[in-house]
Amino acid sequence: MTLTQLNAFVFVARLGSVKAAASSLGVTEPAVSQAIAALRVELGDPLLIRSGTKMLPTEGGRRLFGIAVQMIALHAEAEDAVRAERAERLHVVATGAISEFVTQALTDEFGRRRAMETTSGEVSTDEISLLLTSRVADVALGPRMGDPRLACEPVLRCRLVVVGGLGGRRDVWLVDPSAADPASDTSRLLQRLRIPESRVRVLASQTASWDAAAAGAGVAPAVGHLVGSHLRRGDLTLVETAATPMDVRWYATTLRPEARSSAATSFVEFLSTPVATQLMRSPGAGVPRARYRPPVHVSIWRPTNLN
């Protein structure tokens, strides 16, 4: 039994699928399947069984789950203790529009200021607790989390609006993949307006949905300050709805202060600075050329190899 096998098991058991686990761990689906298969053989139990579209733990799997989570957490703590005197690293994950428009600008500037290795990734809300408690990620940017093991701090108040092209269709809703996340702002807006699935089209990104809306293909939800340049140019216009503008907040989520890394603490403190606020409000503005120093990006996903 290895920690990589236990990691694979925990992620599949929590997220309900091999695909979701592989995506969160940054490895291939066959690697996750092989790790689970080896664990099944060693323990003599199926551990996970399929129920509809979900993978659910067996009774033996449920007993293993709690122990496996503790073992993974202890392993992460041991690594952190050994690496305490080495160069710090930071991995930030984010949901939806935050990941698409904001995270890279924030981690680049933070990494430049601290001469720290940084990397980032996009996740769904239901992955955040597992990624943070397993110490795969240090900080998550997104909606408020209700997990008592985590600390959430508001970092920005903004508004969700709906935009469309002049003379374009108003019966089709163009959304990015985060709409599939029930906790996302886009999903909550669609629920408030009772938009049926038959009228929703999912595009590759929020930028793609705005481009399609500008071309007249439908209307698209958007964070007001992020879509501002399109509105000023006139290629998009605000569309009135019964639920917009909808007030939303972005939160920074970490392990509780006594358990999180010093890099996570520093990043949360950085988010309260005027520079970070400006980057969240105008991420495309960047930083002055004279101040820019390209950070080194490394992956700190654990495990790096499940074979």
Whole-number mean pLDDT: 87
In total, the number of domains comes to 3
Number of helices: 11
Q: Name the CATH superfamily classification of the largest domain.
A: Periplasmic binding protein-like II
Q: Architecture of the largest domain, according to CATH?
A: 3-Layer(aba) Sandwich
Pattern of helices and strands? HHHEEHEHEHEEEHEHEHEEHH
Query: How many runs of DSSP E, i.e. beta strands?
Result: 11
The top level CATH class name of the largest domain: Alpha Beta
Helicity, as a percent range: 40-55%
CATH fold naming of the largest domain: D-Maltodextrin-Binding Protein, domain 2
Strand content: 15-25%
User: Which parts are unreliable, with pLDDT below 50 for 5 consecutive residues or more?
Assistant: 285-307
Summarize the structure.
By secondary structure, the chain is an alpha/beta fold. The chain folds into three domains: 3-83, Winged helix-like DNA-binding domain superfamily/Winged helix DNA-binding domain (Arc Repressor Mutant, subunit A), CATH 1.10.10; 86-153 and 250-291, Periplasmic binding protein-like II (D-Maltodextrin-Binding Protein, domain 2), CATH 3.40.190.10; 157-248, D-Maltodextrin-Binding Protein, domain 2 (3-Layer(aba) Sandwich), CATH 3.40.190.290. The protein has eleven helices and eleven strands.
Task: Describe how the helices and strands are arranged.
Layout: H1 3-15, H2 18-25, H3 29-43, E1 48-51, E2 54-57, H4 59-82, E3 89-94, H5 96-114, E4 117-122, H6 125-133, E5 139-142, E6 150-164, E7 173-175, H7 185-193, E8 200-202, H8 206-214, E9 219-223, H9 228-233, E10 237-238, E11 246-255, H10 262-271, H11 274-281
